[in-house]
Design brief:
Elements: H1 7-43, H2 53-68, E1 70-71, H3 81-93, H4 97-109, H5 124-136, H6 138-144, H7 150-170, H8 173-187, H9 193-213, H10 218-258, E2 261-262, H11 270-275, H12 280-299, H13 308-338, H14 346-365, H15 375-401, H16 405-432, H17 459-471, E3 478-481, H18 508-514, E4 519-522, H19 525-530, E5 535-539, H20 543-549, E6 553-559, E7 566-572, H21 573-579
Parallel strand pairs: 3-4, 3-5
Antiparallel strand pairs: 1-2, 5-7, 6-7
Helix pairs in contact: 1-4, 1-5, 2-3, 2-18, 3-4, 4-6, 4-7, 5-15, 6-16, 7-8, 7-15, 8-10, 9-14, 10-12, 13-14, 13-15, 13-16, 14-15, 15-16
């Protein structure tokens, strides 16, 4: 104790420290509670929605990879994270819709914990609000229950940002390694991780501009710039060993995921290199330079050659339906933070810039009108939105303390309106209508989160009947008929570049592969007439012709996309009745 400190002042500081510890503990417990809820809502009924077109093709090729042990990176089907992780999980517990979606659900379910990494930049109310947005925002929730990389990428980038922020706040090297590990994993998910890097650099430049605008004249700004250069150089010299080690971590993760697997075939392969170390240079090249060349050749072309305005309108409409309160509160939080106090908080401005630019940038970057792209605006905007929501919470609490009933009621109305809109929209889109084109029976409110490649509701029971038939049949199990589905050589479908008509079957190939079906196709009705396959699949336009060649089959008609893809499953009546729990004579089994 120094000479000018009195015992009373020491006691006050100890009491203040204990209070602060208690507040932080309660905040941490609250974040853990929100995270538990986030995981629960993501895992509940995770396998109930039928696979989307995109889930179906990737899932099918993961099953083929699990069987053959052969894989190489192709940018058109995005990063390798899900391939390797799902292959491992399939081998561990078996493949299913639930297991395939599990990695995305778990990583995004843990996202509310990332709010704790910003505890020096956000107060406790803002941290809890941020965790709640991460847990229950309808857009993020819907695509957290989806075997796609977008929500996974967004979550990993927030964790990376959080660890890097902790690095600046604490100066502890472990945060550098944790952030780099999360960043490296993000690089294995999807190619638009580069957009994140660009928006981060742009946001950092704007933050630097904040510093310069606070200086009165050119001399002060020049002095500030020189100070940054000197401190940056000093920091680089001090941290260079850690930076090199972190770079090694980054490259190790990237090479592990991007390196080809070549079991039983010629060419370099990661596991083959351990028995033949001379192969490691080729493996390293394939996992780094080769992967980059594949990316550049695929995405540096004309995939974004489309009109901008329709894509922007679709993006904004999706954002409005799935994240209107969050988007509006992000603006409130950014403006309030910018003009409150001596200067705006870097984290709040940084996140707002990244999210705001994403709204206008992704309609350029995407090759289709993809509602999942809104995830990349929602996640960064959640940070200033948490600041905005916390303003209304504090306003209400202050009004209660001041016995200002009107202000308390208004603040409560805002908070309850936000909570109610989020809850209702999340329940409608993720649970009540996860694969419906409309959210109402009248068909007036379009479900913007359901992308065109999602099969319409009702397909699951038919797939279960198909599975029952496949399990009890020998020989060809499923015969595809018609020009939309015919493939001359079915073995071509084992590779990522399947024959064109195969894609019109999606997502059914995931299920037939999952069920172990023997599949064939034809353009000849005579083959349909002579087939012994218990399942025949054709377009609805061909229904009459196919039905006239089949005897004892029951027809089930479904959409393989949201609309415009009417497809009929003809299933041998014997298997239908048995699947329904009755024998062919109608007696209960």
């Amino acid at each position: 104790m120094s000479a000018d400190e009195t015992p009373a002042s020491v006691r006050e500081r100890l009491a203040s420290s204990e209070t602060a510890f208690g507040v932080r503990t309660r905040t941490a417990v609250a974040l853990v509670g929100v995270t538990a809820l986030a995981l629960s809502v993501r895992l509940f009924g995770l396998g109930s929605r039928v696979f989307h077109w995109d889930e179906g093709r990737v899932g099918y090729w993961i099953l083929r990879y699990a069987e053959t042990g052969v894989w190489e990176y192709h940018a058109i089907i995005h990063g390798p994270f899900l391939y390797h992780v799902d292959k491992f999980l399939f081998g561990l517990v078996g493949p299913s819709d639930f297991v395939a979606r599990l990695p995305v659900a778990v990583v995004t379910g843990l996202l509310p914990l990332s709010a704790w990494l910003f505890r020096e930049r956000l107060d406790r109310t803002e941290m809890v609000a941020l965790a709640l947005f991460f847990a229950f925002n309808p857009v993020l929730l819907y695509y957290s229950r989806f075997m796609r990389n977008d929500a996974l990428l967004a979550a990993l980038m927030i964790f990376a940002l959080g660890f890097y922020v902790r690095l600046f706040d604490t100066g502890r090297a472990r945060h550098l390694y944790a952030g780099t590990f999360a960043l490296a994993l993000a690089f294995t998910t999807k190619e638009n991780v580069l957009i994140y890097v660009l928006t981060w650099v742009g946001a950092a430049v704007l933050l630097l501009d904040h510093r310069f605008t606070l200086r009165a004249d050119a001399g002060e700004r020049l002095a500030l710039a020189r100070g940054y250069v000197r401190s940056g150089w000093t920091a680089f010299r001090h941290w260079s060993p850690h930076l090199l080690a972190a770079l090694f971590v980054f490259l190790a993760v990237v090479v592990f995921f991007y390196a080809p697997r070549a079991r039983g075939v010629s060419g370099p392969g990661l596991w083959k290199a351990f028995s033949n170390p001379a192969m490691f240079p080729a493996v390293l090249e394939a996992g780094t330079v080769g992967a980059w060349e594949e990316f550049a050749s695929t995405w540096a072309g004309s995939h974004q050659d489309h009109a901008y305005i329709p894509f922007l309108v679709h993006y904004v409409e999706t954002l409005w339906q799935g994240a209107a309160p969050l988007t509006l509160l992000a603006g409130v939080g950014f403006v309030a933070d910018r003009y409150r106090g001596d200067r705006p908080r870097d984290l709040v401005s940084f996140a707002f810039y990244g999210g705001f630019v994403s709204i206008f940038g992704y309609p350029i970057a995407t090759d289709i009108q993809a509602p999942w792209a809104t995830v990349h605006a929602v996640v960064p905007l959640a940070i200033p939105a948490a600041v905005g929501l916390a303003i209304f919470v504090r306003w209400g609490l202050d009004a209660i303390d001041d016995e200002d009933g009107v202000s308390a009621v208004l603040a409560a109305m805002v908070v309850l309106l936000v909570a109610g809109q989020v809850a209702v929209t999340a329940a409608d889109t993720s649970f009540a209508h996860p694969q419906d084109q409309y959210l109402d029976e009248a068909g007036t409110e379009e479900n913007m989160l359901v992308q065109f490649g999602q099969p319409a509701d009702g397909l699951r029971p038919t797939l279960e009947t198909v599975e029952y038939a496949i399990d009890r049949n020998d020989g060809t199990d499923v015969l595809w008929y018609g020009s939309d589905f015919y493939v001359a050589d079915e073995t071509e479908n084992d590779d990522w570049a399947a024959e064109g008509n195969w894609y019109d079957r999606l997502p059914v190939p995931w299920y037939t592969e999952l069920y172990g079906a023997e599949v064939d196709s034809t353009n000849d009705l005579a083959d349909v007439e002579s087939t012994a396959a218990p399942v025949v699949v054709a377009r609805a336009d061909d229904r009459a012709g196919v039905e006239s060649r089949l005897d004892g089959y029951r027809a089930f008609e479904h959409e393989l996309t949201v609309h415009g893809s009417e497809t009929v499953f003809f299933v041998d009546e014997e298997y239908v009745e048995r699947a329904d729990g009755a024998d062919p004579d109608g007696d209960d089994e």
